[in-house]
Amino acid sequence: MVQATHAPFRASIEEPDLSDLYDVEPFVPDDEPGFGAFRPRGLQALLLRIVRIQPLNRGRSRRRVADLVRRFAPDGVVDTRMRGAAFRLRGRRNLIEDAILVRPGYNRREIDFLIAGTPIGGVFVDLGANVGLYTLPLALHVGAAGRVLAVDANAEILRALAFNAHASGCANVRLVHAAVSDEEGRAHLEIRKDDLAIVEVAEDPAGPIPVRTLAALVGEAGLERVDSVKADIEGFEDRALLPYLESAAPTRLPSQLVLEHSARPAWKRDCFPILDRLGYEVVGRERSNTMLRIRGPRG
Predict the structure, then answer these.
(1) pTM
(2) CATH class of 23-27+107-294
């Protein structure tokens, strides 16, 4: 398997090579304009204020209005803030970036739930971190004494998250380029529906992406505790979470989970009855995500 490296990631945007690198430090490339260079101005800023009014920013109309806003931006790039975090939205097909741009309240209930149950100085693990929708608000919340482990299998997405973490001042974020499953291996990534946020991880011994277990990632990060976890990994939620939760030490058992249930038909084991047996109760559901809290104190 791949051996961890702690060198700052400096690969070019055009020619990524993360085949043997999964531990990534937040950075800003020398040729990358600083955050704020692409902030909305003039007509674009006015348009953005308008389209952020519901229902213009919901459902199928979200991408159309996001594309409209990007037409007024150089190369479609927009700098914006959400929940105090800095996001550079790069004009790619990415439903998460669309939502950050035109619907600042996207996944608000789930993020609020995790923040409320994760102490300052605590530890949050984000599986399927994308550009940082959950990672960065939680990193700002837990503060310098806290830790965030953000994992994504998409190299292009991970570079964007690295920039956003740096621009947000989140030095407490460790970024990991990997897929997560129930055993170690290699894989390749298939983009679905022309959207970087909709992917399928296919096991492939010669693939460029390391496949790790959550237990290995937590151990290698030196995390002695885990307070909360979000998992949105396109049908691998069961394989990533359940083996970890069934074997982790009490201090490494998260007290709160946000679990995407949209890909439930792809699960090999249904998470919900097993999570119930492990002591987790459902406390809320949204369109795509379920929120769970452990019953009573951990351990």
Answers:
(1) 0.87
(2) alpha beta
